[in-house]
């Protein structure tokens, strides 16, 4: 995405965050669909709308940490080039922050799913 030249508000970071979020939502939806289809031989299939909302909320919660970290690094002029090894280390910090911010959302969604199935 960085090499494509696409920008929003003069920055390619916004495009990168949006494309990664869209891909993550799509992949998480496919995972949710596959898991619900295989549960009980297909009898456990959930509503597709619920799966899309679950995937979207999970990715948005993750992006608060990861995207926030990327924005902080980018606009604070701390972001090294993607070819620099420090870039990969800093993205790992962002992944940890994303996991921390997504954990409460995932926990609440799992609790809600458990309550709905019992």
CA-CA gap between termini: 44 Å
The mean pLDDT is 86
**Portion of residues within helices:** over 70%
Enumerate how many helices there are, as a single number.
3
Regions with pLDDT < 50 over 5+ consecutive residues? Answer: none
Query: How would you sum up the global shape?
Result: elongated
Order of helices and strands: HHH
Q: Strand-residue fraction?
A: under 5%
Structural class: mainly alpha
**How many domains, in number, for the residues?**
1
Q: What is the number of beta strands?
A: 0
Integer-rounded radius of gyration? 17 Å
Instruction: Please summarize the sheet with the most strands.
Output: none
Task: Summarize the structure in words.
The protein is an all-alpha fold and 118 residues long. The protein has one domain (2-117). It is built from three helices and no strands. The chain has helices spanning 12-38, 48-75, 85-117. Helix 1 (12-38) packs antiparallel against helix 2 (48-75) and helix 2 (48-75) packs antiparallel against helix 3 (85-117). The protein is elongated, with a radius of gyration of 17 Å.
How does the SSE layout of this entry go?
Layout: H1 12-38, H2 48-75, H3 85-117
List keywords for this structure.
single chain, 118 residues, mainly alpha, 3 helices
Task: Report a brief summary of the structure.
The chain has helices spanning 12-38, 48-75, 85-117.
């Amino acid at each position: 995405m960085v090499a494509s030249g696409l920008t929003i508000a003069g920055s390619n970071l916004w495009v990168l965050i949006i494309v990664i979020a869209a891909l993550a939502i799509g992949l998480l939806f496919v995972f949710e669909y596959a898991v619900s289809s295989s549960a009980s031989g297909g009898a456990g299939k959930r509503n597709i709308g619920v799966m899309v909302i679950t995937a979207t909320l999970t990715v948005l919660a993750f992006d608060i940490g990861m995207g926030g970290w990327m924005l902080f690094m980018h606009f604070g002029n701390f972001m090294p080039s993607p070819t620099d090894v420090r870039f990969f280390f800093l993205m790992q910090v962002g992944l940890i922050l994303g996991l921390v911010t997504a954990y409460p959302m995932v926990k609440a969604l799992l609790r809600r799913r458990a309550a709905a199935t019992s």
